[in-house]
Structures are given as C-alpha cells and as structure tokens.
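Shipment paperwork, digital attachment
Item: protein structure file
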Amino acid sequence: MATNSEDPNRKLLDQILQTTWSISLGVAHKGLEMARNPEESINTLITHAQALTTVPAGTPNNLPDQAQALAGVWLEKGTTFVMECKTTGEQNK
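Attachment content:
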C-alpha cells in the first residue's frame, strides 16, 4: 500500500513521463514535417545554424564575453525548441 509520502513522487513521475512523451511526439511530428518539405527545411536549418554561431550585437570583443553570449543564445534557442516540441506533441496526441 502506498503511503502519503510516495503519492507526490508517483504524481511527479507521471508528469515527467507525460512531458517526455509530449516532447517526443513533437520532435517526431517536426521531423515528419521537415521530410515533407526538404527545400524549406534546409533553409530553416541553415538559418537556425547561423543564429547559433552568431555573437549577439553589443557583445564586448573578448573571448569570455562572447562565449557567455553564445551560451545564452544556445540556451534560449534550445529552450524554445523543446517548448515548441512539447506544445506540438500535446496538440497531436
């Protein structure tokens, strides 16, 4: 029999699994969409790759600041991508 202390853990595990499933479905859906229109997908990938390798304007011209600015760009782009995949996955369950 489950105790009260195990119940929150079970709910947390359920939420983690549901979120992971939604993200996975979203990634699969985005992959299929890219395969349906490869020309547009290539342009999109190139644009995203350029954004990941371009130091934001106004960043001081020294390596530590530029590295930190790029890390911020990667974090923002990665977070946005995961959230888009989660939303897409939830819509396509």
